[in-house]
Specification:
- By secondary structure, the chain is α+β, with helices and mostly antiparallel strands.
- The chain has a domain at 61-146: PH-domain like (Roll), CATH 2.30.29.
- It is 14% helix and 30% strand.
- It is built from two helices and seven strands.
- It has helices spanning 54-57, 131-147, and strands at residues 63-66, 70-75, 78-83, 86-91, 95-102, 108-115, 120-126.
- The strands form two sheets. Strands 1-2-3-4 form a four-stranded antiparallel beta sheet. A three-stranded antiparallel beta sheet has the order 5-6-7.
- It is elongated.
- 12% of the residues are buried.
Length: 151
């Protein structure tokens, strides 16, 4: 029968001389600890002092025309165009005029914003089905008349 040597260091519990000494103080049980204050948080102002979010700040009618790539929005804040993922917003004080018409082939709504400095911006929204274009015209006229009355 072959005898094996005793296991080397690293096997089994450490010898008593390497055991850590007990702490000099006895830890308090959890129920005796003082309650910890919560993490510091920035003070929150009362709701009455906080400004409302932009989407709630607008009141009144709005108009929305959307296709796969483009959109036109007219609301209390002004006119916004979205073209292929890029958005341009025009606030009412910077708008000289808003014009709209059907495209030459009658398949799209063309909306133009004339800026106060004379620059001209246009967005074309495809109307599918084609009858939607005839629904958009009276809606757009009414909303524009609400925010930009003639006279």
């Amino acid at each position: 029968m072959t005898q094996h040597p005793p296991p080397g260091p690293g096997f089994g519990p450490p010898p008593p001389q390497y055991t850590p000494a007990p702490p000099a103080y006895a830890p308090q049980p959890p129920y005796a600890q003082a309650p910890q204050p919560p993490y510091a948080q920035a003070p929150q102002p009362p709701y009455a002092q906080a400004p409302p979010p932009p989407q709630q700040a607008t009141t009144g009618p709005d108009f929305l025309a959307v296709d796969k790539r483009n959109a036109v929005v007219v609301d209390a804040s002004g006119v916004a165009f979205e073209t292929s993922g890029h958005t341009v917003e025009f606030r009412w004080p910077e708008i000289r005029g808003v014009h709209y018409r059907a495209s030459p082939d009658g398949k799209a709504l063309m909306v133009a914003v004339v800026h106060m400095d004379g620059r001209f911006y246009e967005c074309v929204v495809e109307a599918r089905p084609r009858t939607r274009l005839q629904e958009w015209f009276p809606q757009l006229a009414w909303v524009l008349g609400h925010y930009r009355p003639a006279g």
